[in-house]
Amino acid sequence: MMVRSTAYIPPMFVVAALAATTSQLVNAQDSRRTAVLEEIIVTAQKREESLQEAPISIATMNQSQLEARGITSLADLGTGSIPSLRIQPFVNTPSTLTISVRGAGFSDPGQITFEPSVAIYLDDAYVSRGQGLAMEVADLERIEVLRGPQGALFGRNATGGAVRLVTKKPSGEFGLQQTFNVGNFDALKSATHIDLPEVGGIRTKIDYLHSQKDGWVDNTAPGENDYGDIEQDAFRVALDWSPADNFNVYYAYDWSDIEATQIYFQVMLDTLGVIGVEPPATDTTRFPVRPLDPSKTRQTGHNLTLTWDLAESLTLKSITSYRDMEEDTRNNYAGALLFNGLIAAAAVEQDQFSQELQLSGASDRLKWMTGIYYFEENANDDLLNLASRDSFGALTGVFLGPIYPPIPQPSDARRLVSTQTESWAAFGQASWTPAVLEDRLEITLGARYTEDKKSGDRDYALPALVEAGLRYQNYNLKTDSLDPTLTFSFQWNDEVNTYLRWATGYKAGGVSQRSFTFIPFDEENVETWEFGLKSELFASRLRFNLAVFNTEYDDFQIGFSDPLNPTFAETINAAKTTKISGAEMDMTLVPLAGLTIDLSYTYLDPEQPDQPNPLNNNIPERFELAQSPRHAGALAVAYEFEPFSFGTLGLQLDLTSTSKYAYAPKNFDFQDSYTILNGRVTLSEIMLGGGDHHSLQLALWGKNLADEEYRVYAFPVGNPVLTIPAAYGEPRSYGIELQYRY
After folding, report:
1. For residues 31 and 698, what is the distance between their CA atoms, to the nearest angstrom?
2. pTM score, two decimals?
3. pLDDT digits 0-9 by tens, 74-93
4. What's the alpha-carbon Rg for the chain, to the nearest Å?
5. Would you kindly state where each structural domain of the chain is located, as residue ranges?
6. For the domain bounded by 11-741, which CATH number is listed?
């Protein structure tokens, strides 16, 4: 089937165009403002340092960049604003995201028995489950994406990398920011940020966010929800207290609530001709769908961070975190699986506790950190697939009639799954500058020892199914790993820095809760070599960073669905080494005052040898490395005019482009290449009466301005393929935003 899709735009064409004009613009004189890059401070190595000095491949977005792109959650990065970070919605649960970095990810993040390949951190506290990752974060200060294995400092389940969400801290001075945003599809968002004056040494910040939007696929069933409906609330309060000059207490509580219907799966291939192929990116359901209930995800989190400066260059830090999550899922595939309305129902409960202690110090030639980490998790999942046995009207005479009442399917009995995880680790890293080569060389050595214990069980609720062979099953795993890292960094001059990094990582084993056999799979180990260049040139007008890497995975974990029954899935360890090589380029150019050009590009070359398929008598078969486009790029051009008497005008266009890639490792269908264009016009610093403390900001924004039709997920069913259900990305959206600041 042909899908209207814009071809991938090679970023080298963009680079050539920019280079042709840079020589003229870089010498342009602008008496109004200076044209220099702002320094970017990151904490990717658990200490503050300049992005240009950190010997690691990092992609960042600061608060102004996030605001200009309308990014308030990880889900907003789904079209590729950070090209090496791939995010797509999960097939079953609206709040769950499938995340990968450099091609390392997992295609089934909804399983509580799996571990992610990309570690997510919210203010240095690990978030272990994929459920709820689509939540809005109340007030993001920046996002850091650490690319490649982070085995030493971030540990288990960071074989692909780590994503750090950093929120804005209390200032201690009164401030108010209120934002209202309205758009098509009846979209409404309200964000309130309040900084309270310091009282008794305590600085307080309160954030509240509410957003809602109607789905863009209309359900023709009267009184039912549409596909893509969403309503969510997020609340956060942060307290920052320094009872002594050398001691700080930081506490944050966050709460989020998401109610959303799933993405719509339309039929893009129907070899039996039962339903028929639907137009690409259709905005109306194929027939009235009932019931279509929203999935509900609620989670809370506590973060307590204590920082004690024991001496001038010796700091002890404690990070304590507790999170709990509840999710109730009710999906309706409405004929996409060639019968009317498979309802995938699940109830997930999860809680986690983590404790980390860090001791860090520095001298003239040595910066070091050591610590211990403990993590504990408990999770339960109650799954039940429901469907009508009268899909084609044999009993009622109504072809593809509504699912009422739904009937449990024999092959998909109610599955009760529970799992417990306990993990501890000891880690350390030191960076040494020897007294040679004019102090330009830095050597960093780190290592982490991790021990994991996992156990769980699966039971079935219907005795008749137990007698048929579906019986109580359990598993116990104990694994450990020592993961070293070594980096050589050399500062050639004030503008150019290079590094060579060798790093390893480890991801714990587990078991597929959707597997028929419930046989555990082993841990995954990764090793990577990375060469990096970091530079700031032309009097700090051009920042150019490059990383070239080669990564090898042993026992790479591959999860894939049964083609005859997609509700069952297996996970295997690859019998042969999986290799991924590639390159990443990040460039920021300020050719003249007010104009900023950001360009990022990622190239991936995966090598996945044929693996034995346990669902096909262990015959070696081809498996794809999912979410691994060979080419992906992002371009953002922003210009801010000299302030007018009535305010400051700013323009931004950002474009993301991605070549084709596979959605899943097996039974794959390839996403066509696509290009997404977004834009924003902002009038800021509109001064109000009462002095300079009050101001307004007005913005007009649009996303997917070219109304690109592009798929975000697909999964062929049958062997040979009988049907391909596919979900499409959101069409053009637009709106207006009003912001008040005091």
Report:
1. 27
2. 0.89
3. 888 888 899 999 988 877 77
4. 26
5. 11-741
6. 2.40.170.20
